[in-house]
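chain below, 172 aa
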Amino acid sequence: MMKIIEKFSCDVEQDSLFLKDANLSSFQDKFPQLLNLTEQLRKHLPDEYKYYLVDFMVLNCTKGKYTCRDISWHFDGDYEKDNKYVLWVKGPNRTLFPKTNLNLNPPSCRIEQKNYLNNLFSDIETVEVPEETIVSYDSKDPHRGVSCLDEGKRYFFRMMASNYIKPKRISL
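prediction:
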């Protein structure tokens, strides 16, 4: 279940950007102005993982725009694997998690998982990730992006610890 860790304020100034599965150390070299944020997030991930990756997305929100490719309920990574995540979002239209923990038994197929979760969570009460607050979750925690209701710049920063998802070769 998503866990609220701590409020962490950080000044972020970046134009539109979509960066997924970047190597943590390469990201820190390219974005030294975000070193405090990356160090703060990293200390909340366990040390025994092989890969540490960063997703950083800056979105200029307008009404009706999606905060991610698919705003359906989903899991990050593979449900059967043990990825750990920390997330920090600044701005409007933040990620939603179920308010209560449910016993899940999702199918292994991604499409069937999506249908299973969307049916299960059609009327569930949700909690929005608090602004500028570090939250943790894992590959078994369902969540969803949203269709933007509020306008403004949204900074989405997620760090992942994984033993099977390798950093992409991204020229930063």
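Strands lie at 3-7, 17-23, 51-61, 84-90, 96-98, 126-128, 133-138, 152-162. Helices lie at 24-30, 35-42, 110-120.
thats it, cya
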